[in-house]
Amino acid sequence: MKRWKLVLMAVVAVGATTALVACAGKAGKDKAEKSETAASTNAGASNAKGQLTLGAAASLEKVFTDKIIPMFNEKYPDIKVTGTYDSSGKIQAQIEEGAKIDVFFSAATKQMDELDKKGLMDTASIHPMLENKLVMIAAKDKAEQFTSFEQIANAKKVAIGDPKSVPAGAYAKEVLESMEIWDAVQDKLSLGSNVTEVLNWVADGSASVGLVYATDAKKLADKVSVIEEAPEGTLKEKIVYPIGIVKNSDNAAAAKIFVDFLKTDAAKQVFVDSGFTVE
């Protein structure tokens, strides 16, 4: 009987050892597979190369040229990013005409949605990235003449973006119509081809006041003063900047890496420092 007990104990011990070895082997295999997957992903990123064209709203030019693109190039030196900056409507038109643009960063959802409906965007890649505010500005030496949005009707020359193609201009029109002073400023309007042009007109005194994004006003804080933010309720929706990859991109892999980079904490902080709110 004692002998049988010894045999039974030996069998149990062997079984337990075998199970431990099997588990250890499986764990090691899983770990190796995860390591291989991570290595493969990293290798794909590090091997990405080529030219990449960003089509972005004019209000994004400074943050990209001064900060974001240099940061990206430092991490991905083999991907060369070139930016073209203008009103979102003009960038939209360029994409519709077949321009070699890989990533579209719009200052409004309207232009992005229209391109997507036409099948020109990679729908899955579209992401609401940033939020901005519309403000009334005046040159530093004229700022004391104005204290609120309502006084825009007293200005000699009012600069806004062209509502037909410039999102900031469309927002400006919406605000002024909501405040019932759009008709009162019709004869005083100067329509800019993009928001940067409007900003410069106010800074150099060509226009008494202007309506631009808060981030643009911050760029020339030494030359213009913010009078007031657009009153609450005068805009139906938030000013959201969506980003997406153009469907016929010649370098979709690099475009994805670039868009993913913009979602990193480091890139987000740069946008926040420039006055944007990150969605």
Question: How would the blueprint of this fold be written?
Answer:
Layout: H1 2-47, E1 50-57, H2 61-75, E2 79-86, H3 88-96, E3 103-105, H4 109-117, E4 127-132, E5 134-139, E6 158-161, H5 167-178, E7 189-192, H6 195-203, E8 209-213, H7 214-219, E9 224-229, E10 239-245, H8 252-262, H9 265-273, E11 277-278
Parallel strand pairs: 1-2, 1-3, 6-7, 6-8
Antiparallel strand pairs: 3-10, 4-10, 4-11, 5-8, 5-9
Give a short synopsis of this structure.
With 279 residues, the chain is an alpha/beta fold.
Could you please describe the fold and organization of this structure?
The protein is α/β, with parallel strands linked by helices and about 280 residues long. It is about 45% helix and about 20% strand. A six-stranded mixed beta sheet has the order 2-1-3-10-4-11. The chain has a five-stranded mixed beta sheet with strand order 7-6-8-5-9, with helices on both faces. Helix 5 (about 165-180) links the parallel strand 6 (about 160) and strand 7 (about 190). The relative contact order is 0.17. The model is unreliable at about 1-45 (pLDDT under 50).
Count of discrete alpha- or pi-helical segments spanning 4 or more residues: 9
Overall pLDDT confidence: 87
By helix and strand content, what is the structural category?
Answer: alpha/beta
Described by the principal axes of the CA atoms, the overall outline is: globular
How much helicity do the residues have?
Answer: 40-55%
Which stretches are low in confidence, meaning pLDDT under 50 for 5 or more residues running? Answer: 1-44
Order of helices and strands: HEHEHEHEEEHEHEHEEHHE
Strand content: 15-25%
The biggest beta sheet is recorded as: 6 strands, mixed
Order of strands across the biggest sheet? 2-1-3-10-4-11
What's the alpha carbon Rg, rounded to whole Å?
28 Å
The end-to-end distance, rounded to whole angstroms, is 75 Å
